[in-house]
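seq/struct pair 1
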Amino acid sequence: NPYKIEVGEQVNAVTSYLDLSQIYASDFERMRKVRSFNGGRLKVDIKNILPLENGKYFSGDSRAMQTPFLAIIHSLFVRNHNNIADKLGSLNRHWSEEKLFQEARKINVAIYQKFIYEEWLELFVGSESADELKFSEYDINADASTLNEFSTAAFRIFHAFMPTKMEIRDEN
């Protein structure tokens, strides 16, 4: 039927996994743009924060500049990745640039997941619900995609957590 109306679905720019795709990107083209290809590191500017592209901070997710707080969080995870890559590189001088990048990425993602499951989740849903979620059995057949209802309505609750003010200080 040429007049049949299909239900539209929104497209999510990042993966729905806790994989730090907001830092590393969800596609290889953008991932190549965030990498320095030097010692397994991600690109940073001379102040060790996210690099600028067309006057905006650039990260794995195009929304890194949506709020200053997102840019700060992105910068912290990028710095952490680079710190891990530097330490791994000094311990494993025989590792390739790719191996350093991937191993630093794995460790950084593990730190992020630990933070989400052991600190943030409990604050958000309460300790009893968090325990149920943390200790539920992994289901390989579960659909991990983001529901339209969640991305357009429920996920907006996180906007309420954004601070309304930010103190800016100089280096002193």
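seq/struct pair 2
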Amino acid sequence: PDPRPELALRPRRMSVTRVEEWLRNPYAIFAGHVLGLEPLPMLGQPPDQGLKGGLIHEVLSAFASKHPSALPDTMRAELDTIAKAVLEEYTGHPRIAAFWLPRLARFLDWFAHTETERRSTTQRVLAEISGTLVLNGAAGPFTLSARADRIDDTDAGLVITDYKTGRMPSAKSVLSGRAPQLPLEAAIANGTAGFPGLSGRPVASLRYIRASGGEPAGEESAIKCDDVVALAVKAQQGLEALVARYDDATTPYRAVRRAGFNYDYDDYAD
């Protein structure tokens, strides 16, 4: 299928997490935004990776919000207390009790052990902070939005972090534009409105933190880039070109599978 909806029906606002979806399979944007269709969960489906990721995000966000500037002496105990409160309503599920809780404990051990180094030059940490960037488009303004998992305000500038429970995108995918989330968050930070309270602060680096709870229990990966600002500009220009392409009413939202993207199955591919 290659639907060509009227321009008035096409999205004028999108989050950074959906831009990659737009790149890898435009039909998913048509199905979700224009038709309002979303995949239904399977009946009796056990807790999935999405729920696991949401819970870990909530634990780390609550910890950073409670301790934005200085770490507590009892960091590991604090993390346990927060995790217990977040997971309380889910711990009755046998899968969570048997598999998730031990993995979460191992990841929190790793996080507590490594967080001191991450905070060594950090003035404050902001968690789940929202920002926007408005782009000019042929069909009108297009708003890019983001809810950054974590932004560290350090001596060198801002460090933007995305938490992952699954695979982390490779540096090659980020630098080539196939995984544009972090560079687009950097573009938002560089914008006029940006992220509240961080206006004028340069972006120093981008990184992923993976919470697996397995072996290794956690991983940290900084994107090696000589010029983060240039990478952000490149990502913004790529999005502007994408917006311009779909601001042409003849451009279809085709269902395609493109090589090089990090996914195994697509609900809208067939």
